[in-house]
Design a protein that fits this description.
Nucleotidyltransferase, domain 5, 5-stranded mixed β-sheet, alpha/beta, two-stranded antiparallel ribbon
Amino acid sequence: MYEVFLDTETTGLSFRDGHKIVEIACIETKDLIATGKIFHKYINPKRNMPDQAFKIHGFSEEFLKDKETFDQIVDDFLDFINNKKIIIHNASFDLGFLDGELGLIKKKKINTKLVVDSLEAARNKFPGTSNSLDALCRKFNIDLSRRTKHNALLDCELLREVYINLLDVKEPMLNLSNNVLDKKNVKIKDYNKNIIKISETDIKKHKDFLKSELKKNFY
């Protein structure tokens, strides 16, 4: 099945308070393996940028003023996510903005049956602890060095790594094998392996080398 890891950046915390989306990013995967297809847009919110929001993501009014508006990118966005599982961290936040923007231009809301909230999965796995994306990256030893500011595209990449760890599956790998193993509903392909037999001569040379090194160090 195809999945989409989705994240947004906004001017504030609530669409109802007049805040708007300024960035949308989606990374497509198939059975959690990145397909190489992404959707990424900066969006002109047609409003001022509060200082608090600017400190989080660094997108100024000057930077966004010549970008497309939501209604100009919406059809491409909806086509990209169509009939795919949508994985979002703290889904209620992003859906609140997306559904708000879609409602303004008379488009259907996101189908919540296709949405998976990774924050809920994290809370079930780690109850009573911080389950922010940063905290989960630290739990799973995922490199955060590039995350100096919030960035929707980078956060999608980090979320994919976090989600794989939440499911307790190994990192899926692209390969040339036609064999498919199904583990916890995630298909993982194995590489074809060529077995190389070591000759008796090479084995003897290796043993002789080890003996000579032992004599040097211990006698």
